[in-house]
Structures are given as C-alpha cells and as structure tokens.
## 1
Amino acid sequence: MSIDKNIFKATWAYADAPESTDHIKIKKQYELFIDGKFVAPSKKKYFDTINPSTQKKIASIAEASSEDVDKAVAAANKAFKSWSKLSGKERGKYIFRIARLIQERAREFAVIESLDGGKPIRESRDIDIPLAANHFFYYAGWADKLEYAFPNRNVQPVGVAGQIIPWNFPLLMAAWKIAPALATGNTVVLKPAETTSLTALKLAEIIEESGLPKGVVNIVTGAGETGAAIVNHPDVDKIAFTGSTGVGKYIKKATAGTSKKLTLELGGKGANIIFEDAAIDQAVEGIVNAIFFNQGHVCCAGSRLFVQESVADVVVEKLKSRMETLIIGDPLDKNTDIGAINSAKQLKTINEYIKIGLNEGGEIYQPKCNLPKEGNWCAPTLFLNVSQSHRIVQEEIFGPVLTVQTFRTIDEVVEKANNTPFGLSAGVWTQKGSKIFNLTQRLKAGVVWGNTFNKFDPTSPFGGYKESGFGREGGMHGLRGYVKFD
Amino acid sequence: MYIGGKFPRTESGRYYAVNDKKGNFIANMCLGSRKDFRNAVVIARKAQKSWAGTTAMNKGQILYRIAEMLEGRRAQFVAELITQGESEKDANLEVDTAIDRLVYYAGWSDKYQQFFSSVNPVSSAHFNFSCLEPVGIIAMIASENQGLLGLVSIIAPAIVGGNTVIVLASESKPMTAISFAEALNSSDVPGGVVNIITGNRSELFSHMASHMDVNTILYCGQDDKMMTEINELASNNLKRTIFHKKHDWLAADCESPYMIEKTQEVKTTWHPTKV
C-alpha cells in the first residue's frame, strides 16, 4: 500500500495563531516562599529561568541554600501542630479555595507554563492547568472523609512532607504533591525543578491569597543541592519525589537509616503494542500521542512501539505520513503540536541518544520540518531496525524519540514488553476485548491503556512497578503515601 | 531446607548445631549459603506466574488446607516449640494462633481485592479501574522469636496475595520452620511458592537485600543497623522494603488485610467507552 505523502502537505499553510502574553504578570525576580512570606535567599544567590523556545531569560529565581531549607522545614514543622489538628472540613475548604483560584487564573498559568517550559499552549491550556485545578478539587473533598478510605484504621498525618518535582508538568506535579498532603493534614516543603520554577511560584501567590495558614506550604527553588538538603533534613518525615530512576535510587539509599516515609515516581520505557486487529488509524494517532505528547518529556511515554509483523509496513508508513503533518515550533502558537525541548541540557541528552541509535545501526526517520533557529528543538524521530539489546530501546530518553520493533505472537510481545527494569506504563491496541484484558493483566506496569494512551485524571491512581518507583498518586490510593496508622 | 517443594541439603554441605537454653544439643540444621538463596529465587520466579494465576477460591482452599495440616500435627509442633525453649502454655497458644491465622488469611483470599480495588470516575469517556497485583517475589527474614507464628504471620498474607517467597527461618529456632515446610508440602501448595532456608542472618541478609530479581525484602527484628543496610542495598533495583519491629506476633494487629496490601502493586487500566 502506498500513500501519497504530498496529500498531507496541503497547498495551504497554517496561519500563526499565537496566544497573547500581555495579560500575564511576571516579576523580574522571584523570592522563596517560606512561612507565608516571600523572602530573599540567605546567600542572595539567584539563577535565571530561560524560555526554551528563544533561549531568552524570563526572570531571576532565588536559589535556596541549606539554611533556607532549614527555615522552610522549621516553618512547616511549626505549622504542622495546628494544621494537623484542624478539622478535615476546614482543611478541605482551604484546598477547595486553592482549586478555584487556579481555575480563575488558568489562562495566565497556561501561558507561563508554555513560556517557561516550552510545552504547546494547547497542552498547558487543556491538560496541565485544568488537571492541576481538578486535582486540588478532588483531594479537597477527601480531607473530611479519610476514615472511609482506610476502614478499621485510625489515620494520622505523617508530618512534614519534602516534595521534589520535575520539569515536565510543573504545575500539575505540584498539585499532585501538595493536594493529597494537605488533605491528610501534612505540611509541605516543595522544590520545583530549576528550569520550571515559575508556575510553582505563581501557585505560592495563590496560596498566600487563599489565606492558608502560614508555613503549611513552603516553596523553595533551586537545583540538586536544594533537593538534597530537603532529602537529608532530619525534621522531614516524608519524601515524595518524581524524577529520574537514578536520583530515586539515591534518595532510597540516602533515607535508608531514617524513619522517613518514601514515595517515588520515576522513569519509564513504556511499551505500546499494536495488534493486526487494531483500528489502525486510531492506533497511529495513539502512537503519536504516546510518544510526542509534551515533546516526549513524559515518564509514562509509549517510547517502545511493538507492531505485529503482518501490519508493520502499513503502520510505519502511516505513522511516517502522520509525522509529516506535525507542527513543531512556537509553544504559544495554538497550532503547535510539538513545542521546545525543555532545556539545552535535555536537548543534548536527546541528541546523544540519537547518535547512539545511529551508531548501533538503527535506521532513523525524521519528517522534513523547519525547526526555528533560536531555542531548543528536536524533530520527532523514529528508529527502525532496532532490537531489545539497543540502548535506545532500553534506556529512558525523555524526548520525542520512538523505537519500533515487530512481533508475531502474544507471548513474544509480552515477554519483550516486560523485559525492562521499568514498569510504569503500557498500551495495547486491538479491537478484541479478551485480548485487551489478557494483555493488560500480563503487562507489568502501574498504568495500562487499552486503545488509548497518556490519559490522566485526579481520580485515577498513577505510579510504577519495579524501578519506576513505588506508591501511587491520584485517586483514593494516592492518600496512602501521606498517612500513617496509629 | 525446603526449596521448590523438595527438602534438599545446602549445596555448601555446611551445617550448624542448634542447642536448647541449657546448651543441650537438639539438632543439626543446614547452614544455607548465598547459592542456596539464589537457586531458590530462580525457583520462586518460575512458580510465581502460575501461583498468581491460581483462582482466589483455590488459593483460599489451599491456605485452609495448610491450617488443617497444622492442626493435625498440633502435638508435634507444640513439642518442638517446647524443645526450642517455650513454656507449654506459650507453645500451645502459639500453635493455636498460627492455625487461626492461616484460616483468617484463607478467608481473605477472595475478598481483599474487592476491599482495595476501585472503579475511578474519570472526567472523560473512559472506563477506568485500579486493582491489586502481587509484587512478585518476596525475600523474608523471619522473626527470631516465635519460630512458627512469626513464620506463618508473614508467609500467609504474602502467598494469599499471589506472591512467592523465600524465607530465612529463625536461626535459633529453625526446627518448627522445617516441620511447617512438611505441612506445606502435604497441603497442595505448589512447589516453589514457599521456600524455606535455614542459616545465618548476618551472612545472608545482604544477598537477600541486593538480589536483582527479588521485588520485596521483608525483615522482622530490631537490629537498626541491619535495617539500614537492607534499605541501602534494596535501592539497587528499588525493592520494596517491609520492616516488622514487633516482638510479639500473638497481637491482634498482626492479622490484617493491610498486611496483604503491603505485598501488592496497584495497576490502573483505562479503556475508552465512546464507540
């Protein structure tokens, strides 16, 4: 079957459709949010946050030293005494209010998220920000109902939660961390990723506005050292981390001799499996969404494609054609499908992996597209002719790079899909019901999508098997990491 | 020892003598080696898939059968516990509690899933549910105190949840562990589901905590240094760690569906509902 690729290259082009930025307010400099106030960092050090699509500086961000982390933890500890005693009903009201305030300023949040992180405005507007607000709404309602989540147990908060989040879904990850912690009566010291601090600091403004008692949520910005100061702080009772498996292992080791409670949401190398009896066009859309959503900066991305041999040619052909139509460019343009790579450092990592893939004999395919001259960009990339032993098949790339393998039988593909230290996500595409459930039961992953991919919801528990971490976020199960039983 | 449904001696050929409180010789036990443990992991991995696939009803029946076998050999277990240093009263109570505990978890086999699972009302046209799946293989360092009850209390919730286990028995009170293995062996528990090794904690714990094909390490005891090391070693493949610091396994809170939950993963499945 041959497809005329030119039919997608229509004679008309998309006109620019940029989201306006004039309604957003970004300060020149951001301070730390400790004990209900914005305070300068003790060492007066600041770092730049960069717009990855232009490489231009947006603002200066305070760098929290270990002294600043001490202050934040002390404030959280002090606030814990009264916050944990407050009735669930009252706690819930504050969380509801935060949710509402995010909704009211959703547009501003969406634009800043795309400016600071490089993700397409369509995604920050329709996915990140609404989901973040909904997450607060969801957990607000749990605050006075915890005894129904854990029958026969007297539920107590853990204490001060140190929370470290990544740069791929900045505000959403902050919501995933803060909302359940507050609902269960914990107080928080949160560190956003150093390349995407802005929406967390905007959230701090909202928290201040909401009247949440001071010290209940503290936000300290900085890089790895700030994170390490939180992890190793003796007065932190719980660590919740989302990020790489390497750092996750370090945290597990670093907290070994302590009584800190730990939840880790780490890397992945999700298998996306297409059977010959799948609805092929839908599956192709699913493949694109699985790997190119958010530039592939998704821990649960479907980065390993497995196509049944009998349909491999047609699926790959259609996929290539579809990739030709993807629009890469200005994150603030509403037409954009693939935005900027989050940082120059991450772009370097991705390019190194592409080089590794080529050196290992992989056959590369990238659509013809004009990447902007300034900024961090990576064309959507396929690798054919790869096998299980290739590094690009085994290791998490965290970019828009998809490896394609084929299979013949169910047993073979289950074996291949599970043959990885990771276990975060997987996808299965087939029109046969029993095959869906056969596969979803046998795939060793915390989230399995049947005939869909990369869907998220506050009510839906998310988290990994094996080296993708432990603990769940979202849903009733997401409360578990923030409570202890008497 | 008890590995893969058989009673082999340690490949190392080593043994150690177990004495009673007064220092009188009771028996020679295998001094299990690292290689014995590694062999047991391979066997436990093979057994896990089909054990997890056994119906909940069937797993419950098998656990109930273990309780029956234990009750049938009640006198033997009481006598062994007394030999290992317990009073007659304590020995009777321990055996009775162990039998009850097996019956308790037998009953949970087809219920805990309903208790911990959920259908999640997502805001899109998808059917979405979360249920429990066994974590896989659990390496266990059993309580040093209660040679029978300490063992039953950690094995029962793990296997009723579809896991397979390799247990290092109490070093000073290992005989009841091997007698318990005989009860298991005559209870329709498939070979490899429960594997029991005897030997030295300080020699074996690091191998148990660092093995790359073990999913969870469970430790019973009060040695903080050993727990720290287990935690550190477990980071190499992000094993889940479970620590039980309790001395006394008779307490009522040692029976709980939350003990099963600790040995489980949550899997969430999505499917569109729009045609």
## 2
Amino acid sequence: MTAQAILLTVNGTAQAVTAPPATRLSTGLRDHLGLTGTKVGCDAGDCGACTVLLDGAQACACLVPLAQATGRAVTTVEGLAATPMGAALQRAFLHHGAAQCGICSPGMLMAASELLAAVPRPDEAQAMAALGGVLCRCTGYRKILEAVLEAHAFLGDAPLGNWPAPPPPAAGCAVGARIPRADGVAKVTGADLFGADTAPADALWLRAVRSPTPRARFSFGDWAPVLARHPGLVQVLTAADVPGRNGFGIYPDIKDQPVFSTGELRYRGDVVCALVGDRATLDAIHLDDLPIAFENLPPVTLAGGDALHDRWPDNLLTTGRVVSGDAEAALAASPHVAGIEIETGFVEHAYIEPEAGWAQRVGDRMEVFACTQAPWMDLEEVAGVLGIPHSDVRIIPSACGGGFGGKLDVSIQPMLAIAAWLLRRPVRAVLPRSESMASSTKRHPARITARAGCDAAGRLTGFAFEGAFDTGAYASWGPTVAGRVPVHCMGPYRVPAVAARARAIFTNNPPSGAFRGFGVPQAAIAQEALWDRLADAAGLDRLEFRVLNALRAGDATATGQVLEHSVGLVACLEALRPRWLALREAAAAANARGGPRRHGVGIACMWYGIGNTGMSNPSTMRVTLGPEGLVFHNGAVDIGQGSTTVLLQIAADALGLPVDAFRLVLGDTDLTADAGKTSASRQTFVSGRAAQSAGAALRDAILLRANAGPEARLDWRGGTLLVDGRPLALDAPLEGIGRFDPPTVPLDADGQGIPYATYGFAAQIAALLVDTELGTVRLQRIVAAHDVGRAINPTLVEGQIHGGIAQGIGLALTEEYLPGRTENLHDYLIPTIGDVPAIECILVEDREPLGPHGAKGIGEPALVPTAPAIFSAIRDATGIEVTRIPALPHRLLEAMPR
Amino acid sequence: MTAYRRPTRLTEALALLAEAPLPPLLLAGGTDIYPARAAAEAWMRPVDRPLLDLSALPELAGIEDRGDYHRIGARVTWAALREAALPPWFDALRQAASQVGGAQVQNRATLVGNLCNASPAADGVPPLLALDAEVELAGLGGVRRLPLGGFIRGNRQTALAPGEIATAVLVPKAAPDAAARFEKLGARAYLVISIVMVAAVVEAAVGRITRARIAVGACSPVAQRLPGLEAALAGQPLAQAAAVPAAAHLAALAPIDDVRATAAYRRQAALVLLRRALTLPAEAHAA
C-alpha cells in the first residue's frame, strides 16, 4: 500500500498529508506539517504531551491513525489563540507561572481548552478530571490548576506577553518581582524548540543498539548481508569507529562509560553499536536480524559478584566520610537512642522530553544541538570522543524539556557527534521513551543504617550513618553522591558527634547519577524518622524537638564549618508552628470520629549545600552594549527552573535598566561564557552573583564613558541608552563581565572542611490520611517553609517548591524503577494532577551575604523534606515506620498492625 | 509500511478479514495497539501486522435500547458511556468509564476494545460480568453471541475466531432500581492500571437482597464472578450486606505478585473493596 493524501483541517486550514494511513497523527502534524508545538513524550498515551483536539475532543495524537483524522478538525497549540478563551488560557499560564520547562504545556493547554470551551469557569474537580491525562514533571500541577481556574479572568484582546502583566518593573525594581518568564511566550505557543523539534531536512537518523540484558558478552558477525539487505542503512558504528577516546564520564579522571561497548555489556541499555541511515530503514530493522551474538553472564548486584571494571576490583567506586567527635561513645552514653534501617529503589527522572538532538560537522568543527543541563561538560565529552580541541566543538542547547539531574550526563551527544564527524552529514536522534528510561541515569538506590541519640532534655548527642548506594554500571555522579551524603545526613541540626560513611558500589544496574538532591533525599528519610522517635522518647513535640536542635547562625557543622549567616531553619519552623498546631488539632478531631481512615501530620527539615562539594564551580556572565543593542550573554541553561528570568532580573537591576531592554543570547557555547552546569541548585546563587557583577561592570563602563556619577539614571528608549536623559554615543561596544566562584575548602579524609559557601534550609509539614484497610495514602496538604535567602522571583520560587514536592511525593509513595519492568510511564508512576494536594509556600528570606541580593538556591531543597514529612505523617496516623521505599499500598498494609 | 484498511461496511470488513493473508489487528481507538508498537519499537522489535480499522463501520456505532437488553456498539468510547443517560444498573460501568486512563483515553478507547484486549486488569470486565453481558461476534457465516465469561479465555486470550469481529456488547436489563457500584484501587489518581477492582450489581425488595452479582478483576487471569458470595448475599438485609463478604468467598481467585502489588495484598484488598461496594448500594436504595 502506498502513501496517500489524507485530507483534514488543522487549525482551521485544509491540509493534505501524504503519509501512510496508519501513521500516528502526532507524526503527521510534526514531520509532515511542521507543527512541532505538539510534543511527543511516550508514543503510548501515557503522558498526554501530544494532546490535541479532534473535533473539539482531547486526544493523544500519538494514538490516532492519521486516516481516522480524515475530514476532521484538528486543533493544536499553534491554533489555540484563535479563540478568545484559548488566548486567555495562554495568558493565564504565563501570569501564574504554569509553564516551567514547557514540554507538557501544549498538551496541558489543549486538554484545558476542551474543558473551558464547555465550562468557562470550572471548579477544581472538573479541571483535575480534564487534565488528569497529562503528566507534568516540573510544576507540581498547582499553578497549572490556578491558571485553568482563572483563565476566564484573562479574556481580552491584548497581545500575548503584554497582558495582563503590568509593564515590566521599573529600573532597579526587578528583583523580588513576580515577572512572567522571559522565555514564557514560546512555551505557551508551542514555538519553543526542543531537542526533537528541529534538524536539517537532509539529516540521517541514528539508532543505538542496546543490551537487552543486564550483563552479557557480545560479538559481531558479518555485517555485509545486513548492509546489502538495507540500502538505507548507511553505516554501522562500533567501538572501532571512535576517533578519540571511547569513554565519557563526569569526572575528568573517570571516563569509564564507553560510547560503544567493547566485549562486555554492563547494564540493560548499554550501547552495543549504532545504526545510521534513513528513518524508515532504521524503524524496520529487527534486533534479531543483526549479526550480534549475546552470551548472558550472571549480573552483579549489591550483594556482590565479579569486578565490573578492572580499576575497581572490589566494585567499590568511592567512599565518603564525615567524622567529628566520638559518635559511638556519645550514643553509648545517651539516655535515648533510636536506630533505623531503610531501603530505597531506583527513581527515574521521567522528564517528559526524551533525549533528542542532532549534530553536524562544520569544516573541522563539530556542532551539537541537543537537550542538556550542562553544555560545557557536553563540549568536553564531544571533544574527547572525537579527539579534537575543545575550541573545535560548539554546543547549542535546545529548549530542555525537564532535566532534574538526568540531562547532566551526555546521552546521544557522543554518538551523534561521531556519526556526523565520520559521515560529514547531519545526524539526528530521538530516543523512544523506553530507551530513554532504560539507558539514562537514575537516583541511587540506598541501603541505610542509622542511629542517633539525645539526652534527657532532647538535645542530640550523636549520630552514626552507614549508607550503601547502588551506583550501577558506570561511575557517572556516584562520587558526588557518596561525597554529599555524609555531609548532609545528620540534617540541619547541632550534632556534637557524627560518624557517617557512604559507599558507591558498582552493579549491573543502570548507572545511578545525579537526581535532584544527590543522595540527600534518601538520607533525610532515615535522619528525620530518627528525630520523630527521639522526640517521642524525650517527650517532646516533633516540631519543638527540631527547633531545639536546629542549627543557628554561629553554629559549627559536622565538617567543622562555622555557619556565619543565613541559617533560617528556626524561622522556617516558627513560621510553620501555627499551621502545625492547627493541622494536628484537625487530625485529632478527625481521628476521634473513628473509621478505617486515619489522619496524620508529619514534619521534616532539610539543609542543602549550594554548588559543588568542596571544589571550584565558577560561573561567568557577560552583558554587552553595542550595535546589536543591549545583550545579556547567559550560558546558564534554563531547564524550566527559571534561571533565564532570574538572572535577567538580577543583571537588569545591577545595570539599572528594566528587563525588557535586554536581548538574550542563551546557552550557545560559541556565544556565551561557561556558567557551569545547571545542577546543585547553584544557578541563582553562583550565576546570579556573576550576573550581578556583569551588570554592575557594564554600568561602571557606561558611567565612565558618559563621565557620569554613580547615581546617574539610565534609560532605554527605542534602542538607545540615555544617561541622565542624554543619549550615550558609542564608538566601540562596551561590555561587563562578571565571574563568581563560591569560596569552599576541600574536605579532608575525615570530611573536615568548608564544603559549601552557603546552604538552603527548609521545613515542610505533610497532612494526610491513611486507609488502614488498603494501605493507601491520600495527601491533604503540604505546608512548605523555605529559607531561600531572597526570592528573586517569588512565583518561580514557588514553582520550584511545588515541583520538588511533587517529586518528593513520587519518591515516597509510587515511584520504583525496575529495569526491564517499569520502563514506561504507565508502570512507572509519577504523580498526576490528582496526586498533589494543596501546597502552602512560606518564603523565609534570611539573606546570604555572598548571594545576589542575599539569594541562595531552591531547586533541590524543595524535594528533600517532602518524603520524610510524608513518612512522619504516616507514622503519626498509624504508628508504622516506613522502611521500604516507596511505600506502595501493599508494603504499608503488610506493616499495618493487625 | 503497515498495511491498513478502513472499510465503511461490516460486510466489507468481514470480507477483508477473510481474505487477509496475514491476520490483521483490529483497530478502533488505537489505545492498546499503538502503545504496544511503541514498546516493541523501542527495543528494535518492530511489528508489522496489518491493521483493519473498524472506526468507520456504522454497524458498530451507538448505544441502543432493544427492549430487554441494551446493545453497546464496538465503537462506543468510554467517554460516550460516561456521558450516556443509562439506567442505574450501568452505574458501575459508568464509574469505570470515568476512571480509565485520562480524558484523552476515555475519548478514544472503546469498551469492546477493552474486552478484546483481554487484560486481567481490564476495567470494563467486572462491571459487565456483573451484568451478565454477552459479546456479539460477527463473521461471514453470521452473528453469534457469547457470554462475556466465555469470550475472555485467559490473559490476552479471547474466543474471537479467525474472520470474526466483536461488534457489540449486549447487556440484559436488571430490575429497575438495581444499584451498581465499581471500586477501583490504583496507586495514583489518574492514568493508572488497577491493582484490584470490584463491581457489584444488587437488586433488592423491601430491604432485602433478591439478587447480587459480584465480580472481581485483576485478581486472576480473567475477572471472575463470586457465586459463593452472591448466594450468601441473597436474602440478606441490604443494611447488612457489607458484613457478608469473607475470605472464603475469594478462594477461587488466583492473584499474582507483580510490580503493582503482591498476591496476598490483592486478596485482602479485594475483600475490603467488596465490603465497601456493598455498603454503597444499600445507601443508594435508602436514598
């Protein structure tokens, strides 16, 4: 059967699509009509990113055969603004901060538009039912819900982006203002270009051939018959084709992960080789047709096995330690001691955008366009595998559809670069969802044993922690996790004696890497459970126990660091106290009524060091004034968290001009300076400080040029800079460069030093009910108090808190990645809109003198306390101490007292 | 390229089916076929079964009242069921309709497709088993009916013969005030495969149960009726129905351990859900 023209109406325009009739509608829209606003997250109806309207009814375009759209009206995000309510909804999304990374936004908008067409002022239950089929991994859904419920208030005819937001804040007033995202319009119109949204028309496609089993030896037979049978198969790439080093990895001295394996495959998803050719050919090739012989080997687990890598004969990648005082002696002398053992599983990042991008060779330079959190690290990896100088690689980050740590490691970039380098043709790749999940890094599963003691008055005396972290097949960020955990595992408390050890151990599991919190969320579960037990033993309220022991300014940590400033934990707890008392009273009243559903209220705290652990992590920002206008060259990748907006607010105030004066140049390594990776909650603090310096440096240059004093007023009028009302004549461009590297001192063998220049602090309350007959948990409310130093943009800060809480909920209750079994988004369960309760955010602003305007970070702190607070509440409701995580219903029910 | 046909008459569809050299997959909403393809393609195991698209067949459309039963055509989606004005004994089925997947899936997926997919966790099966539904099967030789319990033969197995298309599900009428309830247990709010679900259809007179029909899903390869429990409920006061289910009534179930739950949990949860389902019809009758 040949492809035939299928006639349909798309956004009011008649279209003919010549494609096979069984083609997915999503493919027809994106590849044939160029309407890439419709995103593809799973091709299975699990994520809803591709939601469009089919004759007004929402449908996953990935599940609709093109032929079934014949004669029907399809509405995509590109056509949403054609109706007043559609445009209002987009404005509401901007105003409420409902789009973060933006990959789910088109699907959310279309799902909501179906509802709003019928019910312009829906209630929350109606909105949830309408949006229940679209997954979002960034926002925690609450701001999306607000935007949908309030969309009717944004009806009007002003253009998108100008309304209803008031004019941008005046010069010097951007910091602290709830301005809409600087990159928001493209996210709510579908115009933003993610990794899969663009590539040259003549690009070849690349598919990796991956190991179907956790551990195997393999060998190749004769490829000639396969190549002869498939003329569209242009090249098979193997380890022998790697021009440079066949290895990559986060640490400069650990490049242990091969681009293409040599002889042994170390996890399900490890790369055997790659096929390059036209898409139809690659789609039709069957693994069994390839001349690859696999011989399965017994997989290595945490329980032990053969050495995975010659370099680590005992499979121990690294050990992190912090020792201060004599913890064992302190515990032996303590009137109250509690102990716990917990086990957590793999957690998948589940960004809705699978890894995608393309590469091309330009002369003897390599250019890679792909989704990433770390363009400069990608640059180094690409240069390494090609064996070319760093200066010959250019990384152009696409819009990044969620990262959460999972896009810090390279994925497709080395393979694409090798293919494009050798073939001298552009080459692109888009990972299918299951391949993304199988191949990418995960949160480390942890087995933790911890003990803690306190005196009769409830003051902590000692803490002992031993953690084994399954680091999987390759090192990735394992050393970072093993380093961070011992520093953080006693939590933000005064603990006189600490003995903490974390080991990262190789297994034949997926590489465990970076995931929002780097091991700290797992450790916090053990630590906070112990505090609840000790509080009970000492006869103290759980919140008051934490107030009693909380770190305060002037205290020394277990690493010997004296915290001079910005230790806002007590303020967080005090802000929570009225809500704590009220929620506990409400729970007690509800429980007094009896029944199988028991109410509980829990609390947990956290601290989080901002930036790299005891090592340099600088950022450089640049602002220029010249023929191209006022340009902010910002190399920090915004993966949805909002750094593009926040850094602009900071730079604008430092310069003294409003944010709309700036043109933005983002991410491209040829055009921006190295801002460091988007991880460790560091961009607001580190790059923010650099942006502040850059803005101030340009201001100084301008004032010098104008011979004006420091109080001079700058204005931006129609592309011209006015200094105290007079146009500034420029005979050469001016620039301001700012650089910041937070001061730290490396940790010694006992973990003593100054690992971080500053820390975020937080406390969260969870109120919930447990169905004691079914083991299910229904969250009712989360109250989150976070010391962020200064909220540069409160809407974005709240968005980070909401999103972190949603991921914490998943970690606590539903998410468990099992290789080969839950590598899709219907067996791996991230929270839906119905799983995130109302969230109250309390922003505590205990200024950090080193930070821009006193700001610290929020990305990871938001997630850390949620799961422990939920477990604290479960224990409050039922007496059960959760030790096997996630607390799936059958696990909770098994633990229920009978 | 996948061979694909979209006939516009049932006879044409049956003829295409009869002459197909390779048996085609029957496609309606596509919500099972496309995900299965994606999973296979991700691991380089593409499938190239031809597709026979049933979505243009008028004989498969609509819900009709045919006197002593309702006929639900094979093209009827969950959303159509959810929104339909149907007698109260359909309440369990309509509750299931509002809990399958998300709104996008409900708008596209069909009830009959759910039956033909024959997943042990198919949400449509327990409510229909509890209504003694039959499946209407059309072939070139004519139309036959099979009780739903006989149509689904096992995990992903049906009695659909080569050359046949399931064209409708037929639901006999219950007593006018029959109450029906569906209880679904999943690990999250939307887009969730059931860990366990139960359906109950209860008929009563003067406060006593005259007939109770109970089915449990996701606790055996095919959802099952519980005749022992049904017998025990007959004649009981409605107000005490919830106290009747006991572990022994679930003896015939054969739940498994999987990523969603353990077998033991499923057994326990089924009992709890049964008690809850049987509380609510009592309330409905009282109202």
